[in-house]
Design brief:
191 residues, mainly alpha, Rna Polymerase Sigma Factor, Chain: A, Arc Repressor Mutant, subunit A, 2 domains, 64% helix
Length: 191
């Protein structure tokens, strides 16, 4: 079934089209949800809630940009709303254990698998992980993140810096990131 046929079928609320769309996009979108969730169960809840929104809002898709990107934006906003609703974001936004952490100039070797980096990202506190995902992986600006999360732009910037430093420490502790390497754009490995 073509993408347009899937969209048309979903607009008509055809169960077979909805199932096909879900089957096609759910693995990628579950990966998106896992980056924000504390555990697999939360990620699956976010995924289900996100697809309900996709099916309810599919009439509003105007065909501009990629359809997968449109679904991804809905999933990201669903994840953020889920975290806000369950107060998981606010509870962890400004944790003190990353205060005063030195900035490192190390990088992930190119052989490191994205899965390892993603697993380490999931160990970050929810607030840090959320800002890191939105900025480094989803490509939102700090201004956009501030609006999405209802925080100050400077808070987004500091949360990102702290998240990156904490992540680098986790990667070094797991021997994924050698402490003597020079800095490069290692977050690309997580995409």
């Amino acid at each position: 079934m073509t993408e347009q046929a899937l969209i048309t079928g979903c607009v008509r609320q055809e169960v077979s089209a909805q199932r096909a769309l879900y089957d096609q996009y759910s693995p990628k979108m579950l990966a998106v949800c896992c980056r924000y969730a504390l555990n697999r169960e939360d990620a699956e809840d976010m995924l289900q809630e996100g697809f309900i929104k996709v099916f309810l809002q599919i009439k509003s898709y105007e065909g501009r940009g990629s359809f997968e990107g449109w679904i991804r934006r809905i999933m990201v906003h669903t994840c953020i709303n889920h975290l806000k609703k369950h107060k998981k974001f606010q509870d962890n936004l400004d944790l003190i254990h990353a205060h005063g952490m030195p900035t490192r100039a190390e990088a992930i070797p190119s052989i490191v698998q994205a899965k390892q980096v993603s697993e380490c990202i999931r160990q970050l506190p929810v607030g840090y992980r959320t800002v890191l995902n939105l900025y480094a992986i989803e490509g939102y600006s700090h201004r956009e993140i501030a609006q999405i999360l209802d925080i100050e732009e400077s808070t987004s910037r500091s949360q990102y810096t702290r998240a990156k430093n904490l992540l680098e420490n986790i990667l070094i502790q797991r021997n994924i990131l050698p402490p003597h390497k020079q800095k490069s754009d290692w977050l690309v490995a997580a995409r």
